[in-house]
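Lecture 7 notes: from sequence to structure.

We start with a single chain of 125 residues. Read the sequence below before looking at the structure.
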Amino acid sequence: MATTVTQTWRRTSDHFEPQDNDPHEQRRVRGQLEQIDYAAYVANREVIGQMLAGADAAAFQKLAVTTATARARWAAEALRLSASGSPTTPDQVARLTASRQAYEELAEVYEALRRMVERGYLALK
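Now the structure, written as tokens:
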């Protein structure tokens, strides 16, 4: 079983691997799985293509700038907290956590959108 690690969570691939040694049965099952995968591809292409029809390179650039800004705010907050030399308060930790979560969410969206383009679900204008 393969595991893909993203920035915030692990995605496990648990695709069925036929154990039957009969090559005809294996081909039949693989054919069915290819049909299922193709149906998912078509659904993703249609739904994502409609919902994100306005996506273009400029939108990706804006998202990249927003993500970089969130990352910098998170790091700046941590440096500011450590510069004081005093123990952090629960409120300070909560702000730092919120900054990290904002950055991680934006980074995950960027990666997801990139995968959508890579897989052909989303065509940029």
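The mean pLDDT is 89. Keep this in mind for problem set 3.
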